[in-house]
Amino acid sequence: MTIKLLAIGKTDNKELVSLIEDYKKRLGFYIKFTLEIIPDIKKVKNLSQAQQKEKEGELILNKINTTDVLILLDEKGKELNSISFSNYLQKHMNSGIKQLVFVIGGPYGFSQEVLKKANGKISLSKMTFSHQMIRLFFVEQLYRGFTILRNEPYHHH
Fold first, then answer.
1. Separation CA 31–CA 133 (nearest Å)
2. Which segments does the entry list as coiled coil (predicted)?
3. How far is CA 13 from CA 19, 24, 75, in A?
4. Which of 5, 130, 145, 151 has the fewest CB atoms found within 10 Å of its own CB?
5. 10 assigned binding-site residue
6. Could you state, in order of their start, the residue ranges of all structural domains in the chain?
7. CA-CA distance, 43 to 72, in Å (whole number)?
């Protein structure tokens, strides 16, 4: 199985990029993981929030294969602790799917089309974080999830 994280807009903070890269490297020991950045939409000043969500939704759906399992990272999603998240990952790996795709949406959330296509939604927190921080938190939790599944000590540090 491959895990892909789709995110809108590049991370311009070098320290965050470095930390994300570190976790991406660590994840490589456990699973094939890719982080794909969808470029920010140009000329958003001329678009309503709904139009921006629609355009972002089209870009997201263009990156999804019909066989992918699509999970949205959404504040209204199901909250899991780290152990529950590791079990969630294991369940998906056991199901025989080819690719599990997690998506961090744009600033206004997801379009109706993306919401319809999604197989589930999970929340990393009730708090709101910047889209750049969420990437780091997500790759760290992914890594933590695999160390839990392997009974490695990282989880307790």
1. 22
2. none
3. 10, 16, 23
4. 151
5. no
6. 2-41+69-149
7. 25
Residues in the chain: 157
Structure tokens at 81: 């602790």
For the domain made up of 2-41+69-149, the CATH class stated in words is: alpha beta
CA distance 144 to 155: 6
Residue 136 annotated as lining a ligand binding site = no
Residue type, 115: L
Any binding-site annotation on 67?
Answer: no
Residue 19, judged by CB atoms within 10 A of its CB (0-12, 13-18, 19+), counts as: middle
Give residue 2's pLDDT. 97
pLDDT score for 147:
96
Determine whether the annotation assigns residue 124 to a binding site: yes
Angle at 26 between CA 147 and CA 98, to 5 degrees: 80
**34 appears as a binding residue in the annotation:** no
- Mean pLDDT rounded to a whole number for the chain: 93
**125 belongs to an annotated ligand binding site:** yes
Q: Which two tokens stand for residue 51?
A: 């139009």
How many Å apart are CA 137 and CA 154, to the nearest integer? 15
